[in-house]
User: Fold this.
Amino acid sequence: MFDLKGFGDQLLAGTMVTIELALASLVVGLCLAILAATARLSDNWFARNIALAYTSVIRGIPELLTVLIIYFGSATAIMAVARLFGYDEYIEISPFVAGVIALGLTFGAYASEVFRGAIIAIPKGQREAGLTIGMSPLKIFWRITLPQVWRLALPGLGNLFLVLLKDTALISVVGLHDLMRKTTEAVSYSKEPFLFYSAAAFIYLALTILTMVFIHFMEKRNSRWGDK
Amino acid sequence: MDFNVIIQYFPRLLEGAMTTLELVVVSGLIGSLLALPLGLARHSHRPWLYALPYAYIFFFRGTPLLVQIFLVYYGLAQFEFVRESALWPYLREPYWCAIIAFSLNTAAYTAEILRGALGNVPRGEIEAAKTIGMRRVMLYRRIMLPRAFGMIMPAYGNEVILMLKSSALASTITLLDLTGTARTIIARTYTPIEIFLAAGFIYLMLSLIIIQFFRFLEKRSNRHLVSTR
Assistant:
């Protein structure tokens, strides 16, 4: 499709890794966000404060630092646990896994606030109605709250996904062969940094535009029923 | 956990934190100076006036900051005329490259915030100003901008926090900011958890200070809205 002095294929391969990383982190992040949001709204003091600490700490430290802590820290932590069981070998986690955890944690922390706002916005009467007809709290969450939360949370989540997409570039720092890393490799062979970093910038821009189109489509589809 | 390492290297981490703060303050100031004309032009309805700022803002908000930093630090050096220009002594320094990239980046985000605020100035106030015969320039200087500044404070505070966090990327071009310092210490001691957590703690404290500072600014710029104490 585009040649770029023979590095076009490499850049495309990197782009695929970037997309995979972003989607995997999105899934992990959404699960964490729903968990954290329900914990923030629960009656359990302990759950509430754990979730609060999680969201405030992650939102207060740089994403790059989160990535570094997960990548270098979790290997050390796993090795310490493994040593308890008598396993002394050197353990390393892959940059991809570290990236999914770090970006998922970051996305989850911000998205939990979006979900919390959306859950609060759902009238209390619906919950009570569910209870009255004998639904269990889990069923109420699944059948009544969650389907409506999607619609309210979608614009906020869309913005966060755009941020996540750009943050994937950070994982190249710990050695994942994503678009950013492939670009840096191309630069070191070709000695044409401006050309390749501009190319990378435009690929990221294209991904951003694609995402925006998709979000727009989803929002339209989502508001085909409901108020307005 | 080895707390001695943290205590031993804490002063050096604080030195790194000073560099981080310097980066944020300098590029924040340059960025907001750039954002003012950008935001005003973006607010306009004339295509020839808003098209360029629109493209600028879209590019800087749609690409990763890391790419932008590398474009400035590595990319510019590709051109002969840049290396021969009078600016080269600055453009080859990682410090100034980081400042340039951060300033351009935050200018885009701030301009977008400013545009939003300008669009939200109540219609009645603008009409009132026009009715008493204010010219365009005076309308902006006396009504639109002061009102917009009051409105953007919370959003701008968030932007500064985001900038504080993005400033960690300066460490990727060998700058010894807080993250960069932490990474060099770890290269020597190999205690990633302790030192990174200490650095994270300092970042948290810095963002708390910034939040407080902007709460204060917000109160100050909106003091006319408080009628009774």
Remarks:
- Chain A has a mean pLDDT of 90.
- Chain A touches chain B through 38 residues (CB under 8 Å).
